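Prompt: For my understanding, could you write out one protein's sequence and backbone structure tokens?
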Amino acid sequence: AFTGGRLSRLEGSLLVTGYAGYTAVTAGLV
């Protein structure tokens, strides 16, 4: 989770990957 108010490297990459995937799915549905 949050450590010192910052995401860990793994969590950051997961967040970016999840956001990119969500955007791709949403764009595909539109």
